[in-house]
Amino acid sequence: MSLALHYIDTAQQIIESYNGTTPLAPVIKNFFSTKKKYGSRDRKTISNLCYNYYRLGHALKDLSVRDRIIAGLFYCSNQPHFIIGEIKPEWAEHITKTTEEKNKVTGYNLKGEDIFPFIDQLPEGIDAAAFGWSHLQQPNLYIRIRPGSEKTVNKALTNAQIPYEAITRQCLKLPNGSKATDVLRINETAVIQDYNSQQTGNVIYKLLAKNKGNALDRISFWDCCAASGGKSLMFLDMFPHTKITVSDIRSSIIENLHKRFKEAGIRHYQAFVADLDSSAKIPDNAVSKAGFDIILADVPCSGSGTWGRTPEELFYFNPEEIDKFHNTQFNIANNAMSHLRSGGYFIYITCSVFKQENENVIERLTQSQLLTVCTQQHLTGYNDGADSMFIAILQKY
Ligand SMILES: C[S@@+](CC[C@H](N)C(=O)[O-])C[C@H]1O[C@@H](n2cnc3c(N)ncnc32)[C@H](O)[C@@H]1O
To answer: Residue limits of the SAM-dependent MTase RsmB/NOP-type domain (predicted)?
Structure first.
């Protein structure tokens, strides 16, 4: 059997044994851990075949797994590939062409709206076709340089001959698979953070700096779905004198946050574990009695704005989940907001493109509490090789 056929067979084996209940990356890693005959090039090529299969999302589902692996490779590649050269020589010379042109060659009629078919869930303003197409390409790697580390980071990357593009002084774009993290002191000088996740910081900064001016030095801030603290870290980098409180539903996550904050040199903060979906009481000493000045809820969500990085989630997504996310998101925001002082700001963030997880949660919140919507916007990444995110900032009367 040729190498190309062997790669396709192995990818088919992985895909047929995978059911989407856990992330694909560890499943592939585990598969190879017991099969030592595969070298790093083999593993990379086979893994790529699997990912490209899922990148087709919900399109071309009537093809056999094998044909869909080959189609995935053809549509997702933009340079010659030896597998296409061997298996589909009649497609090979068209591999650098546009998707529409590739359709003429394959006869498949692949459409963006078939890759991502949950179009009735999208708000106005999102280009459904462009968003669908974007899943064919893995988004870029983005780095946020921490204040004062610009020279150190640029020098480390240049010395290691690692290519990058400076989008702004703080935001660097790198190709996927870049070895940048090997040469940078991650968390101390720079953090891995998607472009639009960084943009949420700009939206926050513009609004708060305009409305609060010098008062920003003394604010109390609660990140109520903190995970390992990516947004808190960004907030502290913008407003270094903030009194920070962080919480999350699981203690193991807060342990990761402690480790990350230590690397980042952050020592003064308060942390606790709380499930905000339930009405479980939050310890009295954990939250400010007067109410926080700012609460940030980067809530659990479908992640539909990030499926370019995890296309298996797009493939296996059950749209019935959207309403469950909506309810959890509303509960978390509504419960957290009872600890916001009047005049304080509530920042709501998701990495979902679905209206039900975004605008509809905000609308329901404004019906339940006295709030003004200062801003709400989608930060779309489908034209920039970045994630898509949603941010709303509300003020409590
Ligand atoms: C999108 S992540 C937050 C990412 C984080 N802000 C960052 O920038 O790295 C959502 C977090 O919400 C937490 N979460 C899920 N359900 C929760 C709940 N009921 N109450 C509080 N936190 C919850 C998850 O454990 C997860 O860490």
So the answer is: 223-397
